[in-house]
Amino acid sequence: xxxxxxxxxxxxxxxxxxxxxxxxxxxxxxxxxxxxxxxxxxxxxxxxxxxxxxxxxxxxxxxxxxxxxxxxxxxxxxxxxxxxxxxxxxxxxxxxxxxxxxxxxxxxxxxxxxxxxxxxxxxxxxxxxxxxxxxxxxxxxxxxxxxxxxxxxxxxxxxxxxxxxxxxxxxxxxxxxxxxxxxxxxxxxxxxxxxxxxxxxxxxxxxxxxxxxxxxxxxxxxxxxxxxxxxxxxxxxxxxxxxxxxxxxxxxxxxxxxxxxxxxxxxxxxxxxxxxxxxxxxxxxxxxxxxxxxxxxxxxxxxxxxxxxxxxxxxxxxxxxxxxxxxxxxxxxxxxxxxxxxxxxxxxxxxxxxxxxxxxxxxxxxxxxxxxxxxxxxxxxxxxxxxxxxxxxxxxxxxxxxxxxxxxxxxxxxxxxxxxxxxxxxxxxxxxxxxxxxxxxxxxxxxxxxxxxxxxxxxxxxxxxxxxxxxxxxxxxxxxxxxxxxxxxxxxxxxxxxxxxxxxxxxxxxxxxxxxxxxxxxxxxxxxxxxxxxxxxxxxxxxxxxxxxxxxxxxxxxxxxxxxxxxxxxxxxx
Amino acid sequence: xxxxxxxxxxxxxxxxxxxxxxxxxxxxxxxxxxxxxxxxxxxxxxxxxxxxxxxxxxxxxxxxxxxxxxxxxxxxxxxxxxxxxxxxxxxxxxxxxxxxxxxxxxxxxxxxxxxxxxxxxxxxxxxxxxxxxxxxxxxxxxxxxxxxxxxxxxxxxxxxxxxxxxxxxxxxxxxxxxxxxxxxxxxxxxxxxxxxxxxxxxxxxxxxxxxxxxxxxxxxxxxxxxxxxxxxxxxxxxxxxxxxxxxxxxxxxxxxxxxxxxxxxxxxxxxxxxxxxxxxxxxxxxxxxxxxxxxxxxxxxxxxxxxxxxxxxxxxxxxxxxxxxxxxxxxxxxxxxxxxxxxxxxxxxxxxxxxxxxxxxxxxxxxxxxxxxxxxxxxxxxxxxxxxxxxxxxxxxxxxxxxxxxxxxxxxxxxxxxxxxxxxxxxxxxxxxxxxxxxxxxxxxxxxxxxxxxxxxxxxxxxxxxxxxxxxxxxxxxxxxxxxxxxxxxxxxxxxxxxxxxxxxxxxxxxxxxxxxxxxxxxxxxxxxxxxxxxxxxxxxxxxxxxxxxxxxxxxxxxxxxxxxxxxxxxxxxxxxxx
Lengths: 574, 579
Hints:
The structure holds 2 protein chains of 2 kinds.
Chain A lengths: L2 H20 L3 H13 L5 H17 L12 H9 L1 H12 L3 H7 L6 H23 L15 H14 L7 H13 L3 H14 L4 H10 L3 H13 L1 H5 L1 H17 L5 H13 L4 H13 L3 H14 L7 H10 L3 H14 L4 H13 L3 H14 L4 H13 L3 H14 L4 H13 L3 H14 L4 H13 L3 H14 L5 H14 L2 H13 L1 H4 L3 H16 L3 H9 L6 H22 L1
Chain B lengths: L2 H21 L2 H14 L2 H8 L8 H13 L3 H8 L20 H15 L3 H14 L4 H9 L5 H10 L9 H11 L6 H15 L5 H13 L3 H14 L7 H10 L3 H14 L4 H13 L3 H14 L4 H13 L3 H14 L5 H12 L3 H14 L4 H14 L2 H18 L3 H17 L3 H14 L4 H14 L2 H14 L4 H33 L19 H13 L2 H22 L4
Protein name (chain A): DEBR0S1_08570g1_1
InterPro entries (chain A): APC8, TPR-like_helical_dom_sf, TPR_rpt
Keywords (chain A): Cell cycle, Cell division, Mitosis, Repeat, TPR repeat, Ubl conjugation pathway
């Protein structure tokens, strides 16, 4: 990116930060501002030149280039009329008096006023819903609904009809998309969010909303293609950058790693060297690729760059948990508690810490607190489910996992957890379905396929089980004797001796590399027995005599075989 | 009566008695009787006027009739007034002093007596005669209209036949005013025209009566929020205008304004402790907070105070309907419908009760009767749709539900009614196997509200039939998330999961295997490429299988609709309160 393009991007981001703030979309505004400040800083001379240029254009009466959609003179007039009321309503909004804010704007016609009126109504409804919903995992929890949703969508519908079947304000479109998501009308929500983004792509909240509405990777790539074909996004470099952010986040969330993603990330890092968001994405890509050390390093640097930033620290704590770095996790917990004990991220970090110390009750308490603080703290549901599993409380675990997938259906861990919990309850039909869902999200993970295979086996579908295990074998990076043995025993169930032998041999072969394990020993024993049956005494003797590992019963049996095979051999020789 | 006024009357009566004893003239007797009447000494006045010399004088007869009415001696009063109008032929005498013709008043009095005797047919006739004799006899017209004694057609007929010449120069004004008071079912256009002209030409924009008429219209159109705002406006003008209350209270009930209901009821109780409206307000409040027993008591008290007050009867009936006491509800609704032949609501509710009791023939009869009065109420059309659905006449059900949808859009009615129409349409299309349409309608329901579990389970069933097993499972999960004890959803889910195992699992594995094997080849270990992959079954077989599996549960499939239609009816009763 050359300098003029960078200046354009700066312009767009600073404009978006203030516009979004005017619309009271604070977190999106924060994102834009962070992005702006994460860019390569300008030198003194450049800044001065920019200042002069700005002064010049003011003198010449040129208006600055804007990325906001053009507004008609009538709209501008309306906005002017609404100005006083808008000021009043904004100050009510800032004091969190949402009902008062929306009622102050009654009768206002301009887009901004309408947006603020409906948005504050939405927030007020959300707050009422939270009040109604009671404690986390209590009886009523999660069943209450935003009471104003239907009213808002009705009014939006009227606006749409008034505007010849289409909303033209990107923020109203965004709100309509959010409302549609709440009422579970996902296809329409996606369409509305898409429209909003084509009109104004510098609203990160909107991108995020679109991302959370995408359920699987094929939908996501369809949307990416759609954006890529949109001429606005191909022509304008700034638009392109926003799309790039979206692209890498999608790839990260769907566990799709490819060299392109890495390249794109590098490209973005060059433009935004100090933007934590990019770094966190990099860390998450490494985390998903199971490269924990790299992820940890990046998070360390994020922490150094901006020590007071609590966003994504819960993910960092997950990484530390997996790596079992107790002291570092403890430090992180203390640090976040000092920064702000009442943030859901902090609670997650602390919960992870307790979980690592096997204090599951306390961990659950902290997860509940995290969820009470922020309903949208998605990972907390899944992690709480894991804690309940540790406590052998399957029903609570199922409830937690279910809430997790309700909130974010891309979380394969929650789906997998559901499958496991139902397996414990011996409801294999259910767990099969959940494993399928998990597997669809993460087809390159052998654990998913093993789970499906195991489940199919329990349901007596040996054909499917074999296929699933073969699949597991094909995606596993190294050969796994466990799967080999499983396959062999499945074929045994079917009476296909040829295949059994093949896989038993494969399994045994692993002994050369990995040393003896339970499975290889069992395979050896089976082979020995098999050779006995086919009267291949020499082979049977070889197999049986080398069995050193396994239960005493197995070893006894192997000895017996070896003895018998030896005798037979002697008989033969004589 | 103030003491001061009493003193004047006292003096007056002494004077008049003196005159009367001096002259013994019937005119003076009438005068004296009038004084007695205004003092409240009805029996004295009656005694004074009971003589053969008073038979000839219309005014004397009127006054004695009035006295007997006050004494609640209805049969005697009727004797005095006469059972029918003797002036039928010659009522074109012009009254010179600009007041109301005595003959008309006599007719009105007769009407009131008949009404007290519960002889509504005769009362109606008498009122009509009164208006026909003198168009300015507004009391009679008001009785006719406010009690919905006439069907909309009869009302129109009456107004078009009235002779407005009597009203001197104001014929047009009176006609317009009367037109605004007509029932609002079919005459929206006429009403709007009349209202506009009254506003423009007579400068009556801020007139309370005109606004009252407007609230009626808004209420009939189910625009509760607008109606409520107008009612509030009227109330803010003149503090307690009793006429506005029935609409005001119902609107508050509809929009869930419990707190305001509470305040209104208290205000009324302070200011009008003996009015039936007060008891209606209290009853409505208790009904809105779910205290059915108390509500019933207060409704019944209101209806005792004014037996011809329909809203109280309907409220009374509602209290039985919510508790499922169909018989009592029906008898109360029937009373209401006898009192208000011109309103479609009592018959609609009757139809709904019979529908709940599965008495299709009677339900149909009443609903059709209601349809004859008002053809635009979405609720009524919805009920008819449900009726035909239960009868199995899906085509007709569809027609009525579509009509309901159309009129609910026209009338801008509340979201609750709208949802149940969409839901029912969804069920109809599902039964007709027009799955795509059914899905659209169910989706509409879900957009507007979180939805009932049966919406999700119905959609789950549809998707199962269409072969989208995974989607179906997701929907059935949603159904169970809302209502975890839903037996139908549970059974469907088990079925769907079984299908998932039998059909989809192998396909799922196959599909994913293909793509991944291209990416990663591990053939050095698995030397033989898996050769025993079964070829994917063609989709025809799949759907065949699913159909077979679903056949087992199809009895369940028809069941949910039955169950939730019942629920719908229950809701509808709740949705519509006293009118």
